[in-house]
Design goal:
It is an enzyme of class 4 (lyase). By secondary structure, this protein is of the alpha/beta class. 47% of the residues lie in helices and 13% in strands. The model has no long low-confidence stretch (mean pLDDT 96).
């Protein structure tokens, strides 16, 4: 399977309002050295919502160039505007990404047939592996299992989904309908549910916490694959407190703050995101120290 194990939803470093290319390349290199199984530039965690199209294409290109084929690159390319999603997906393909992560249209709240038409329109213009991103907490729309099956039948380029509902029953129903041998990739979009998702047939995670613990998240997925459930459970519970901390404020505020504390990148956000509250920052530092990350 092309996308499996632990993929990091990469944080994008900024410096003086611009993409910090040097820090980004060093960060990607560290992720690979630590054993990450894949990377996802320009996702929610990468603050893609505040990037220009030019920046979007450049960040994907930097990522692909730095990775140099060592791990898969699944580039964020979705939008609630189908024309814009086509353009961003073209950027991803032209940059050499291995696939495109396509969020369901937010705010518009399309019908199931509108969802099918949206992904079909993208595939008509750009052919490459697509992973749908289902995150109702941000989009206001939940892809139902039958709708996912309809999309999969209509759009062969759709090879998987990033499921961020935290609903294992829904994940199980999706796999029941859509899994065809090993041909459909179910990726967790929620660090709390990676292990249970793997247990029902998932293939991995697009993770936030792996930005700071890439080796541990990759090791947990590998332990499960190897049948070492005890080790997988130990790693799950080791990461759990930091996984919770990553969402004490809006993502990616906590994870970028943590990476700044770890001297991996500047603590700089783009509005409307702002720095963490001091009390949350103090709690985060304690957790990082406890895990020997500082």
């Amino acid at each position: 399977m092309q996308f499996q194990g632990a993929l990091s939803a990469l944080v994008t470093p900024f410096k003086n309002g611009e993409v910090d290319e040097e820090a980004y390349r060093e960060f990607i290199e560290w992720q690979i050295e630590e054993g990450i199984d894949g990377v996802v530039p320009c996702g929610t965690t990468g603050e893609s919502a505040t990037m220009s199209h030019e920046e979007h294409g450049r960040v994907i290109s930097i990522c692909v160039d730095q990775v140099k084929g060592r791990v898969p690159v699944l580039a964020g390319a979705g939008s609630n505007n189908t024309r814009e999603a086509i353009q961003l997906t073209k950027f991803a393909k032209d940059a050499g990404a291995d696939g495109a992560l396509l969020i369901t249209p937010y705010y518009n709240k399309p019908t199931p047939s509108g969802l099918v038409a949206h992904f079909q329109a993208i595939a008509d213009e750009v052919s490459m592996p697509f992973v749908i991103y289902n995150v109702p907490g941000r989009t206001g729309l939940n892809v139902q299992p039958q709708t996912l099956l309809d999309i999969k039948k209509a759009v062969p380029d759709v090879i998987g989904i990033k499921e961020a509902t935290g609903n294992i029953r829904q994940v199980s129903e999706m796999l029941e309908l859509c899994a065809d041998g090993d041909c459909f990739c179910m990726l967790s979009g929620d660090d709390f549910t990676v292990l249970p998702l793997l247990a029902v047939g998932g293939c991995g995670v697009i993770s936030v916490v792996s930005n700071i613990m890439p080796g541990e998240m990759s090791a947990m997925c590998k332990a499960f694959e190897d049948g070492d459930m005890r080790k997988a459970q130990e790693l799950h519970y080791q990461m759990a407190p930091l996984s919770r901390a990553m969402f004490c404020e809006s993502n990616p505020i906590p994870v970028k703050t943590a990476l700044s504390m770890m001297k991996r990148m500047p603590e700089e956000f783009r509005l409307p995101l702002v720095p963490m509250l001091p009390e949350h920052k103090a709690e985060l530092r304690v957790l990082l120290e406890k895990n020997n990350l500082l």
